[in-house]
Amino acid sequence: MLIFAHRGASGVEPENTLRAIKAALDANVDGIEIDLHEVDNKLLVIHDRWLHRTTSGSGQVYHHDYEHLRSLDAGNGETIPTLDEVFSLIAGKCKINIELKGINNIALLYSYIDNALISTNLNAADILISSFNHRLLHKIHQQRPEFAIGALTACYPLEYALFAEKLNAYSVHLDVNFISKHFVNDAHQRGLKVFVYTVDELEDINTMKALGVDGIFSNFPTRTKSHLAHLNTL
Ligand code: G3P
Ligand code: MG
């Protein structure tokens, strides 16, 4: 079962910051998940559309220019990272799951990825692009089929993982509240990996392992990994 650090190791460092990503790399995770917004023709790593929860700023991300956003404190003196900075830090070390939150210009995303593929150790095979915006995922698959797609859902779909198969997704990402053996079996029969968010409770980790899911998103990857290592000795 793969362990993805959710927004970096966000349980121990400010979420979606380079500190959280370094902590996740120190934990030897299999992958790191980050959230992305497009501002001023640049891609910034931040989860919320509103600034007040995670930064010293206020108002909406889109109502500020890049320089102002970069001047904010994203926790412990950290800056809101750019996608470039994240690529430089992670490239070649583990998988990177880029969750698209507020993106309109997908060509901009391609240009960041293409630059990183040339200028860093980033491998295309380590990139997984996910979103709740399935129309965007559909477009990306049509335009750049080499990128693996992760179909996110916060619901328990009537036709199980069919929606993800229709998207030609690599993986389907389900909420821990709705996961079931039936869904896992259905997704596997369709050739899809099943990744579950957000799994931090030890009992939930045990359940995910028993269900045979392929990966989980964890805010506390060090603790999750040591618990899994313990389970494997039983
Ligand atoms: O990608 C898994 C998970 O991060 C999706 O929800 O709100 O934490 O981005 P959210
Ligand atoms: Mg996310």
Keywords for this entry:
binds SN-glycerol-3-phosphate; alpha/beta; TIM Barrel; 234 residues; single chain; 22% strand; 8-stranded parallel beta barrel; binds magnesium ion
Task: Walk me through this protein's architecture.
By secondary structure, this protein is of the alpha/beta class. It has a single domain (2-233), classed as Phosphatidylinositol (PI) phosphodiesterase (TIM Barrel, Alpha-Beta Barrel), CATH 3.20.20. 36% of the residues lie in helices and 22% in strands. Strands 1-2-4-5-6-7-8-9 form an eight-stranded parallel barrel, surrounded by five helices. β1 (2-6), α1 (18-26) and β2 form a beta-alpha-beta unit. The protein is globular, with a radius of gyration of 17 Å. 41% of the residues are buried. SN-glycerol-3-phosphate binds next to β2.
CATH superfamily: Phosphatidylinositol (PI) phosphodiesterase
| CATH topological fold name | TIM Barrel
Main sheet record: 8 strands, parallel, barrel
Question: How many structurally independent domains?
Answer: 1
- Strand fraction band? 15-25%
Residue-averaged pLDDT:
97
Q: Can you lay out the helices and strands and say which pair or pack?
A:
Blueprint: E1 2-6, H1 18-26, E2 31-39, E3 42-45, H2 66-71, H3 83-90, E4 95-102, H4 106-119, E5 127-131, H5 134-143, E6 148-153, H6 162-166, E7 171-175, H7 181-189, E8 193-197, H8 202-211, E9 215-218, H9 221-233
Parallel strand pairs: 1-2, 1-9, 2-4, 4-5, 5-6, 6-7, 7-8, 8-9
Antiparallel strand pairs: 2-3
Helix pairs in contact: 1-3
The structure holds SN-glycerol-3-phosphate and magnesium ion.
